[in-house]
Structure formats: structure tokens, C-alpha cells
Amino acid sequence: MSEAATTNEPAIAGTRSAVARRVRPSGGRLLLGFGLAMLAILVLVTLLAPLISPYDPSATSPNSLEGSSPQHLLGTDAIGRDVLSRILVGGRTTLFVTFTSVAFALVAGLVLGLVSGYVGGWVDEAIMRVLDVVFAFPVFLLAIAVVAALGPTVPNLILTIAIVYTPAMSRVVRAPVLSVKKWDHVEAARSVGMSEFRIVIRHVLPMVVSPIVVATSLTLAQTIFTVTALSFLGLGPPPPDPNWGGMLADARQFMELAPLTVVGPAVAIVFATLTFIVLANGLREVLDVGSDR
């Protein structure tokens, strides 16, 4: 009986592994689909905000700090502006800064990571040591210092966030490049006289797509918090354009009288952040990043 059980253990383990391989990608696709659906809702609502917002987000009324009503579903703020309209339109500013800054960080990190990892030598050392200086500072504190020095404008906010997240992007790209450049097909391409640029574009870059896609999704989630936190501190886009962090800052002293002025933008921030976290986890499972399967 004991021998039979021992004999069957490899078969049982193999069966469990096979089941796990079938279930985990399926779960990953489900998670990815859920994340994409949340992203579609977020993007559509943001793009259509001027059309679906019930009021002008800057228009004031005598009914300040009004609770939920048929006219104002999420009430009004301290100077009578419709909270729902400001959340919808404010999402455009917040997400524009988020997507644009992460796009710049992605491009810069991709170039620096590819050059550093593929060329190696003193070039790798020089790039990594410069990025280590930026990486040594806490992201949020560095962002505060740069924005405070440059001024709280949308271009400066985008530049700041791109700077503070570029080192992390570069590290994500550099790590697989160090391994991929030694693979046989890369050496074969080099032996037949293919230019280094073509080798990087055709044989090295496709190998780093999966980790950089996942890293980008996670960076978007982190950037949402960074943008809203800077805006909360008065270092975000200046008035009168609404943004979620600025709305929280304006409403914090009235949260007992009109809690919806705080709850509304807070829920929007959490939903946007959760969207990119779910998307990143789904991508990690489907693209098989960081897995031993």
C-alpha cells in the first residue's frame, strides 16, 4: 500500500501541475479581462466627461455644501460647485498627467535600459550610477522638491514624475537585456553582420516587452497616488481646473458637514488605482512574467 502510494506520488504531482498550468492562465485571462473592462470604463468616462457632466465644473451656486439631491447627486462643495461634475472633469487632468508622465518615463527608461544593458562596460556603469543617485531619494520627497523648485504647473508636474520614475523603468529593462544579449540567436545575428541597432530592435527589444508592460501598469497605479498627493499639497495643476487631489484638499475641512465632497474624489482615486493594479496582475499572469511555469 505504501509502495503504491509512493509510486503514484509523481503522477499525482504531475497531474496537479497540469491542472495548475490550466487554471492559472485561465484565472490570469479573467483578471486581465476584468482589468481591461475597468480601464475601458475609466477612459470612456474621462473622455466623455464634458458631455456627461451635469454642470459646468466651475459654475457656482448659492447652495454650498448641499447633500445628495436629484439636482446634485454627490452634493456641492464649499462654493456651490457640483461635486460629480468636478470629479468627472477633474479625472481628465489627473489621468492626462498620469499617462503622459509615465509615457515619458517609459521612453526614457527603455532607451537608457537598452543602452546600459546591451553596451555594458563603462557606459553601463555611468548610466546606472547617475540613475542610482535619483533612485536613492524617496520618490514622493524627490517629486515634492522638484515641483516646488520648478513651480506647480502641469508641464512641470509631468516632467517631475517622468524623472522620478525613469530609474525604476530603466532597471526593469536592463535586467533582461543583460541576459538576452548572450542568447544564441543574438550571437548568430551578430555573426552574419547584422548591425547592432537592428539586433537590439529585432532580437533584444521583443524579449523585454512583457516585463515592461507589467511594470508600466504598476507605475500608472503608483503615479495616480503621486499626482493626487502632490495636488493635495498644492503642488498639482493650479485652479480653476479641477483635479482629484485638489478636491480632497479643498473638502477636508468640511468633511463632517458634507462627507460626499471627500468620499467622491476618494472613490475615484481608489477606482483608478485599483484598475491599474488589477490590469498589472492580469498581465503578469497572462504574459508569464516572474513565474516559474
UniProtKB/TrEMBL annotation:
Tell me how this protein sits in the membrane: Multi-pass membrane protein
Biological process terms in GO annotation: peptide transport; protein transport; transmembrane transport
Its localization reads: Cell membrane
Q: Which Pfam families match?
A: BPD_transp_1, OppC_N
Cellular component GO terms held in the UniProt record: plasma membrane
Q: Does the keyword Cell division apply?
A: no
Residue ranges crossing the lipid bilayer per the database entry: 30-52, 95-118, 130-150, 156-173, 204-237, 257-283
Family affiliation: Belongs to the binding-protein-dependent transport system permease family.
* PANTHER family associated with the record: D,D-DIPEPTIDE TRANSPORT SYSTEM PERMEASE PROTEIN DDPC-RELATED, OLIGOPEPTIDE TRANSPORT SYSTEM PERMEASE PROTEIN APPC
- Please state what the protein is called: ABC-type dipeptide/oligopeptide/nickel transport system, permease component
